[in-house]
Queue: 2 jobs
Job 1
Amino acid sequence: MNAVAELSRTQALKALTTDTHDQLDKRIMANKPFANRDNYARFLIAQYGFLRDCDPLYDNPDLAALFPDLAERRRYDRIAADITDLERSLPEHDTLPALEHTQDIPTALGWMYVTEGSKLGAAILLKMAASLGLSEEFGARHLAGAPEGRAKNWREFVAVLDGITLSATEETRAVAGAKAAFTRMNNHLDQVY
Ligand code: HEM
């Protein structure tokens, strides 16, 4: 039994993607997203692409059966409003080909882990966005925490994610889904940096 097998599913996903996350974090910060609004807009366009990719997950009835508050978790409308706040136009859908969301549920769970987990780091980004006059009401709406608080919102997500029974093959697909989601975010960053 390896060390990862001792962990909860969420802890294992974190352990298996920490290096990727750290590289992503460093890549974003190296491009100084909060130095000025033009830089922020570049970051926003990449985030937009990723959240647009993730958006169909929030309409998936099989996921809604697992996560009762699924619909409230979506951020597409908020990031679209952020782009409008900054007087930028929404990127064309063919900037990167839209994903076909014909994913099986285990793969989709890996994607959900990444998009929901990214709300944790968003707390730090929201604070930094304040230096540009941006807030959860203007330009940085998609970085806002849930009304009940980020920690509680995340704990509730994790409780469901960790409680789902998956076979070993499905578990592997969930990990692959999480890795694919991080890769996709990097692909969006390739378009703006
Ligand atoms: C500069 C940008 C970013 C910074 C500074 C950052 C920072 C952080 C921090 C500090 C946490 C841990 C928060 C906590 O434990 O309370 C976190 C969690 C997480 N972030 Fe990021 N993040 C960034 C971008 C992203 C992006 C773009 C994604 C995905 C597209 C992402 C995905 C995640 C995930 C999945 C977690 C949850 C890890 C867990 O299982 O606990 N992050 N981030």
Note: The chain has one domain: 8-90+100-192.
Job 2
Amino acid sequence: MKIHFNGAARTVTGSKHLLETDDGLKILLDCGMFQGGESEGGRENRHFDFEPGEIDLLILSHAHIDHSGLIPKLVKDGFKGPIYCTEPTLALCEIMLPDSAHIQMSDYRFSEKKGLLSQANEPLYDIDDVLAALDLFQTVNYNEWHHLHDDVALMFTFVGHIIGSGCVNLRVKEGRKTHKIAYTGDIGRKTHRIIKGWEPFPQAEIIITESTYGDRLHGDIATNEARLREIVHQTCVVNKGKLIIPAFSLGRTQEIVHALDKMEGEGLLPAVKVFVDSPLSTSATEIVKSFPQYYNKAIKKYMERDSQPFGFSNLHYIRDVKYSKLLNNLEEPCIIISASGMIEAGRIMHHVANNIEDERNTLLIVGYCEPSTLGGRLRNGAKEIRIYGRDYKVKAAVEVLDAYSAHGDYEEMIEYLSCQEPHLIRKIFLVHGRYETQTTYRTHLMEAGFHHIEIPDQGDVVEVS
Ligand SMILES: [Zn+2]
């Protein structure tokens, strides 16, 4: 069997890993979009390093765009096979993929208006391609083996990253041999604030696993919640400013809203308005609310006291753009949570532009940002930024709270992998991480007793027979 690493190899976005058996069966694991800087809309998203029409089936680990965002393009370019995922992942893709098509079309029209059209602005797909792709989705339950094909069985196990996310466990027959493969997708925190945590997965011989925070420790949740309270107090009460929080629509937004909901319930949230200013974040929250069977015990217990864990009196969800624009003129202190999380597109761009030059305000970054993105530059201490062709001085405070990340740190990822017997593993491939991070993570893994660890590069093809 060969594994082709066609995305998220020595980088964090664009997840695409292709398994090819000697018998010619081709299974694609995820079909994500590259994000950040020049790559978005650029060459990497316009060409697949394989023939889409030759792929037999696609398995999707979870709905984040860097794992799912090129599925409509794959279908547009000739893929006709089934796409397997969990039920919440399909529900989320039904809002996220149309949103992705919509953003691309809006960017295209904006560039057209400004006379800045180039091939890089052309949408990768449109809503018809999205609908054709959604027709191919088939959902499967967690913790059950499903025979997808004569030679392939699949089981999703809980990985605790976002609702619907799963570790992809595969049994793939090749001649007389059966390969035991696990692709972890993204690994969540040990204690997720909303959904069930990770569970052990069956012993695998080949493991493809993420490494986003392979060189970091996040710190404990209680400390970070205290820090969040301090930041809210300092910004909204002492400075009388605005707290701007860029957050992924899916996962991070619900976690932050729930943290604020808890603060409100405990009487620790100042009486300021809180806005979730994003139609996608609003819809994603509705979907998270519709799958309470995947909540963890802590939030179920919380809901015995407060049936609305993502809603309190001062919280407003904004879909309509005209209400979003009204926030620009709001004089009073407030909290605005908006997407995208890496500050690359969407309404957050306007909120950063409107608020970054006022020292009363705070920009709070709560998750991973590719260094080339605006979020990444702010995170790394940029003093001046450019948004839509205009320069801005960074006068607002910039704070970072990584504990709100949906990804485990290196100790958590190793703990997740500790259900495996290292001597039974033939190969571990590290993906979804920056190369310097991955080399550090490999050292940590070796100290924990794991061996045969490789860090494939983009385009590498590895034989694993
Ligand atoms: Zn993810």
Note: The chain is about 30% helix and 20% strand.
